[in-house]
Design goal:
Number of strands of chain B: 14
Radius of gyration of chain A: 27 Å
Low-confidence stretches of chain A: 1-13, 15-36, 281-298, 621-626, 639-675
Distance between the termini of chain A: 31 Å
Helix content of chain B: 25-40%
Mean pLDDT of chain A: 85
Family (chain A): Belongs to the protein-tyrosine phosphatase family. Non-receptor class myotubularin subfamily.
Oligomer: heterodimer
Protein name (chain A): Myotubularin phosphatase domain-containing protein
Shape of chain A: globular
GO biological process, one term (chain A): phosphatidylinositol dephosphorylation
Organism (chain A): Megalurothrips usitatus (bean blossom thrips)
Low-confidence stretches of chain B: 1-24, 582-591
Number of helices of chain A: 23
GO cellular component, one term (chain A): cytoplasm
Largest interface: A-B, 57 and 53 residues
Largest sheet of chain B: 7 strands, antiparallel
Strand content of chain B: 5-15%
Strand order of the largest sheet of chain B: 4-3-2-1-7-6-5
Distance between the termini of chain B: 55 Å
Strand content of chain A: 5-15%
Structural class of chain B: alpha+beta
Chain lengths: 675, 591
């Protein structure tokens, strides 16, 4: 869709080490010569430049010695660094987002902005005043990327102007300031494989796919009168009438009574609901001291609410073919709150974004610091919970997940449980369907949790990342169970912050619907799952797992204990060049398998030709023996990952048509290698 | 873990089915190896499995192994442990002990596990097996032969021929203008812990060698380990110079080092990599040892690699065993690993090896490696550096050669470090130096999944037989001792066993490729080898082996290739039947 502009490639980083102030003049001349070429960032339709700083240095990761010079630009979409020394990612086989340049990041992925003064960093908060002279910026992104700029060669005032603009635009206070409202590119949705759960048909399809009986689709929330955060269509026990549901809903937090998400083949269902309201809205009720409410225990629940909960659970029980008593799983007390998850993430992020001084110091105590972050123990707790829910469902017991507002850990546990039990969700389109169903439709507050909008009342929390990490752990234990790869999961986390897609943009379906109908602030909804909008075929090919063997019936029994887990090195370490293994790591296995698949396809085709009597030359498969990719492929932080472009593109081209094993077995192969 | 010897590797927790019809004299007898004999049997013994609870059955002791078979379960449940693995046998409880299973035997093993058996208190029921266990777990302490000398199985391959020193030097292009092969140590008279054949600088005379030997600890003079096929930069190994507190110098040694430097025309420099922390190297001066001063050795740069001694490593592994067996403490797992320092030691060894390889490859400069005696840390470093530099050593046969050469022939004291057949379990000479090397190799296989022809099973099999005493390979401290005891004639080589079923040890992802491996020595990328250290714990599940899937694909590929060829043959035959004249396709082509 966009043609990357021609860029000059230069082989090496320039060293700006040890330049004294009196030498700066000479350098300035050199730098200005560079800028005669008129550098510009590529703007998307609707994108506008807000501020620009010239003669900026961007340091190489974990380096304060090497860098490249260019201009730094803030637009309403991204922070863009444009240089004459850009490398061609295509030549390196690296992933390339069509909407961003190599040194660009979208504004929503910016997590923290620090001002550099000498060796010291000071965090700049949105709304705080920027000092008159900004020498450098240290920017930490939500995907653990660190970008460091220096304004020491920039004209006076450029640093401050740019920092101001960045602080203002990276942390917008209103939703309609997000780029999705400005983006003017026409959109024709061409993805059809993912169920979006916007329509009742998606729900009825899911009901019939899982052969659920005892459940029906209710239209009571069609206009969001029951709950603002639930979808318009609710699957509820068949015996329940809408007025009962309305009556019960107000006793649950966020008005979220039990709703269905999934049924096992035996008939047990997975159901989610919120905690009961501890506060009293009804004037007829007893007055409870606010101080008591704060330590919300069960004792604070109003009897009326308890009764309503029981009525609901009784109906859930009746939804079971054997009328078995459902198992209530309490998530609020056993799992960390969104705030806990955020604090844990912050510690993990600090561990994964070291500067060069911290790196080797951290290495000595890395394991205890990881333990201290509690990230892995949180992952372990989530996996354990999901495994427990899966075990109940396998014993044909209905599971009811109950959590505060039912919008955070419920999404995570519910989705994980289904992933363990139902092979349908382990395909690529199935997984995206699962995210649509359990996260998007059920109202995970993406806008708040991903921090698209800056507001002190909003609790940012990477619950989605925690989920992706859990999925990665399962994938690591069961490498052939999923159609997608870790590269897909990592990419999904990166792209969750691309604020021009609607999938992760809103807090709930109502917000999405309202936004799409508001004529004063028009917005085009475009789904994340249309990956062709962001990536070319060779990058999308790497989303598919060459080891995948589809087995719909298999239940996965994941090991959730901490010693069986690992830190997700691709996602968290890929911006640290010191950890990049040349010619090593998982990509070797991945690419080796892709080549093997290509060879097999090739042979099948030869065989078909020979059998049909066609003249066939022996097709030679390009060998990947000279493959040169690093352990972080297709991501890379290092500047000298020299890969032979010809070899790489041939291997990737070979793999682009590789779909799945089943498809492969009878595919009319597209994997025609050149003779 | 596929393709391993089930008899040896049978996981204590996983019931394995006993094949009927084994040629055993009594129905209770365990399956026996050629040369193996049952020495004692105890009935109604309870094996106290830390994972699946007590199991009752029969405990047999042979001259090779301990064998327990349960009688109270539907599928018989078997525990087998070669007695060489046992480091300590103890009685638990006495005649007056109360409580179930409080009376019995406990075995402490070298492979990270302990086994506990409960016996009936009547009639001293444990006495016989306890005595037999003592005798056959520690035969050398009881004037009995090691099992390897009784073992008589015949294999199609002969592993004793794996290393032919002259041929291996020839592979590296030695002798050449600068390096010669000498048999000065043919009768182990210069150095009793070195091999019989060395490669040394061509210009060095026999007198030089003798003079240098006098100045190096235990006469372990600098000799060639590896030479770069293009740059001629070398890795040489030796022991520390006998500098002492007075700072003694030896002109011959200095000249000899200069000869090593001069043998590499690409560089006018030499790196001396001292594996020890500098403090330890300095402390060694008090004992007459020390390190090369840069004043005395012109153009040599001395680097300390900060790897600790055998005692520190032994203590580190002890802590690791406490952490991994029988159960892991989940909440403190990561900080627990950190507190053992095991991964940190691994990191320093890998970093050292990587540094050596980098100097040789990138700087084209020769490196001389030593520690104190040059048979522990030095062997780790040279072997790993060679593995990084030379793809040959990453093949199965090449890896066997590497172990034969850098570890066995250069006198790593396996007998002392492992304590084969010896009951002094707290002997200060024991240390997991070789285990640490294999762990480092495993780390490399994790970082470079397609660079090695062998798989994890090979590494685990090597370690299992490092202790088992079934093969002669890891017995004794030096070549001299092995020759003296006719090990090659009287025992079977581990490589005979491995090479006779070599397919079990192949890595299906292997792609032979030239070039140097550059590992990243950071704790962030070094992981605990759970497949080894935690393998007795059924709760520690290794990753689902992807090898199975890859093998399937490889088989499919082979079948298709065969089919294509067959079809073509068939067609050709049909064509030649139908057409008497050659078809157009086969007509000569203008060029």
């Amino acid at each position: 869709m966009f043609k990357p502009q021609e860029k000059r490639v230069s082989m090496s980083f320039r060293s700006y080490v040890g330049l004294n102030d009196n030498e700066t003049k000479d350098v300035d001349i050199g730098v200005e010569e560079n800028f005669n070429e008129q550098l510009n960032t590529r703007l998307l339709p609707g994108e506008a430049v807000v501020a620009e700083a010239q003669n900026v240095l961007m340091y190489a990761p974990l380096s304060e010695k090497q860098g490249k010079s260019g201009i730094l630009i803030v637009t309403n979409f991204k922070l863009s660094f444009v240089t004459t020394e850009e490398r061609h990612r295509e030549e390196h086989g690296l992933q390339e987002n069509l909407l961003l340049g190599e040194n660009d990041v979208c504004l929503s992925i910016v997590d923290e902005i620090h001002q550099m003064t000498g060796d010291k960093r000071r965090r700049l908060l949105p709304g705080s005043s920027v000092p008159p002279k900004v020498k450098g910026l240290y920017i930490v992104c939500k995907n653990m990327r660190v970008i460091q700029f220096s304004f020491k060669f920039s004209p006076v005032g450029h640093g401050k102007t740019l920092t101001n603009a960045l602080l203002h635009h990276a942390f917008p206070r209103k939703h309609h300031l997000l780029f999705a409202y400005d983006f003017r590119e026409p959109y024709y949705n061409c993805q059809r494989t993912v169920s979006m759960f916007h329509e009742t048909s998606d729900w009825s399809k899911e009901l019939s796919r899982t052969r659920a009986v005892g459940w029906k689709i209710s239209t009571v929330n069609q206009d969001f009168n029951l709950s603002t955060s639930l979808p318009r269509w609710l699957v509820v026990p068949a015996a329940l009438v809408d007025c009962q549901l309305m009556e019960a809903a107000r006793h649950f937090r966020s008005s979220r009574p039990p709703v269905w998400c999934w049924s096992s083949s035996q008939g047990a269902a997975l159901v989610r609901m919120a905690d009961l309201q501890p506060t009293i809205t009804d004037s007829r009720m007893l007055v409870i001291q606010p101080s008591v409410i704060r330590h919300s225990g069960l004792s604070n629940i109003v009897p009326e609410a308890r009764t309503q909960e029981n009525i609901m659970l009784e109906n859930v029980r009746k939804g079971h073919p054997q009328r078995t008593q459902p198992e209530l799983m309490e998530l609020t007390q056993d799992l960390p709150t969104p705030k806990d998850v955020y604090l844990s993430y912050c510690k993990l992020r600090d561990l994964c974004t070291p500067d060069v001084r911290q790196f080797w110091i951290q290495d000595n105590h890395f394991l205890s610091q990881v333990e201290n972050s509690k990230w892995l123990s949180t992952v372990s707790a989530c996996l354990m919970k999901a495994a427990k829910a899966a075990a109940f469902l396998q014993e044909n017991v209905t599971v009811v997940l109950q959590e505060a507002d039912g919008r955070d850990m419920s999404c995570l546990i519910s989705a994980l449980t289904q992933l363990l039990l139902d092979g349908h969700f382990r395909s690529l389109s199935g997984f995206q369907t699962l995210i649509q169903k359990e996260w998007v439709a059920m109202g995970h507050p993406f806008c708040s949790r991903l921090g698209h909008i800056s507001n002190t009342e909003i609790q940012q929390s990477p619950i989605l990342l925690l989920f992706l990490d859990c999925v990665w752990q399962i994938l690591r234990q069961f490498p052939s169970a999923f159609e997608f790869t870790e590269t897909y999961l990592t990419t999904l986390w990166d792209c969750a912050h691309m604020t021009l897609f609607d999938t992760f943009l809103f807090d709930c379906e109502r917000d999405r619907l309202n936004a799409s109908q508001d004529r004063s602030k028009p917005i085009t909804l475009r789904t994340m799952w249309d990956w062709g909008e962001q990536f070319v075929e060779k990058d999308i090919a790497l989303f598919r797992n060459p080891l995948y063997v589809p087995k719909k019936e298999t239940v996965i029994s994941v090991q959730s204990s901490l010693p069986n887990l690992a830190l997700w090195s691709q996602c968290y370490f890929r911006w640290i060049p010191l950890l990049e293994i040349k010619c090593g790591g998982a990509p070797q296995t991945d690419l080796g398998l892709r080549a093997l698949h290509a060879q097999i396809d090739n042979l099948r085709e030869q065989l078909a030709k020979v059998k049909s009597g066609e003249k066939s030359n022996r097709i030679t498969c390009p060998s990947i023996s000279k493959q040169r990719v690093t352990s972080f492929f297709p991501f890379s932080a290092s500047i000298d990952s020299a890969i032979s472009p010809a070899l790489l593109s041939s291997t990737l081209a070979l793999n682009s048509s590789f779909v799945s094993n089943e498809a492969l077995l009878d595919s009319q192969s597209l994997l025609n290698a050149p003779d | 873990m596929m393709g391993t010897d089930k008899k040896l590797r049978s996981n204590v927790s996983q019931p394995s089915i006993i094949e009927p019809g084994q040629p055993a004299s009594r129905p209770d007898d365990p399956p026996l190896l050629p040369g193996e004999k049952v020495m004692g049997v105890a009935r109604e013994v309870t094996y106290l499995c830390p994972y699946s609870g007590p199991a009752r059955g029969v405990l047999s002791v042979t001259n090779y192994k301990l064998h327990f078979r349960s009688m109270d379960r539907d599928t018989p449940y078997v525990v087998e442990v070669p007695l060489g693995v046992v480091s300590r046998v103890e009685k638990v409880g006495g005649q007056s002990s109360r409580g179930e299973n409080s009376y019995g035997i406990e075995l402490f093993c070298k492979d990270m596990r302990n086994l506990r058996f409960g016996h009936k208190q009547e009639n001293h029921s444990r006495r016989n097996v306890f005595e037999k266990l003592q005798q056959y777990a520690f035969p050398l302490s009881h004037k009995l032969p090691l099992f390897a000398f009784d073992y008589s199985e015949v294999f199609p391959e002969n592993g004793w021929n794996v290393l032919e020193p002259i041929a291996e030097f020839k592979r590296m292009g030695v002798p050449n203008d600068m390096w010669k092969i000498t048999k000065i140590n043919e009768h182990y008279e210069i150095c009793d812990s070195y091999p019989a054949v060395w490669a040394i600088p061509a210009a060095a005379t026999d007198d030089d060698v003798r003079a240098v030997a006098a100045f190096r600890s235990r006469a372990r003079i600098p000799v060639l380990s590896w030479i770069h096929p293009e740059s001629q930069a070398t890795i040489c190994r030796c022991s520390q110079p006998l500098v002492g507190v007075g700072g003694k110098r030896c002109r011959e040694d200095e000249r000899y080092i200069q000869l090593i430097m001069d043998a590499n025309a690409q560089s006018h420099k030499l790196y001396i990599m001292d594996a020890r922390p500098s403090a330890n190297a300095i402390a060694n001066k008090a004992k007459g040892g020390g390190y090369e001063s840069e004043d005395a050795y012109q153009n040599a740069e001395l680097v300390f690699l900060d790897i600790h001694n055998i005692h520190v490593m032994r203590e580190s592994l002890r802590k690791l065993k406490d952490l991994c067996f029988p159960n892991v403490e989940e909440a403190r797992w990561l900080s627990g690993i950190e507190a053992t320092y095991w991964l940190k030691h691994i990191k320093y060894i890998l970093a050292g090896a990587s540094r050596i390889a980098n100097r040789v490859e990138t700087h084209k400069t020769s490196v001389l490696v030593h520690c104190s005696d040059g048979w522990d840390r030095t062997a780790q470093l040279t072997a790993l550096a060679m593995l990084l530099l030379d793809p040959y050593y990453r093949t199965i046969k090449g890896f066997e050669v590497l172990i034969e050469k850098e570890w066995l022939s250069f006198g790593h004291k396996f007998q002392q470090r492992i304590g084969h057949g010896d009951d002094r379990h707290s002997d200060a000479d024991r240390s997991p130096v070789f285990l640490q090397f294999v762990d480092c190799v495993w780390q490399l296989t994790q970082m470079f999944p397609d660079a090695f022809q062998f798989n994890e099973t090979l590494l685990i099999t090597i370690l299992d037989h490092l202790y088992s005493c079934r093969f002669g390979t890891f017995l004794f401290n030096s070549d001299r001792e092995r020759v003296q005891d006719n090990v090659k004639q009287r025992t079977v080589s581990l490589w005979s066993y491995i090479n006779s079923s070599i397919d079990n040890y192949r890595n299906p992802l292997y792609l032979p490729r030239p070039g140097v491996l550059e590992p990243v020595a950071s704790v962030r990328l070094i992981s605990l080898w759970k497949g080894l250290y935690c393998r007795w714990n059924p709760g520690m599940r290794p990753q689902d082996p992807i090898y199975q899937r890859i093998r399937e694909l490889l088989v499919l590929k082979e079948q298709l290739e065969k089919q294509v060829d067959e079809c073509k043959q068939e067609q050709k035959a049909r064509v030649s039947r139908n057409m008497p004249t050659p078809p157009r396709l086969a007509s000569p082509v203008h060029s």
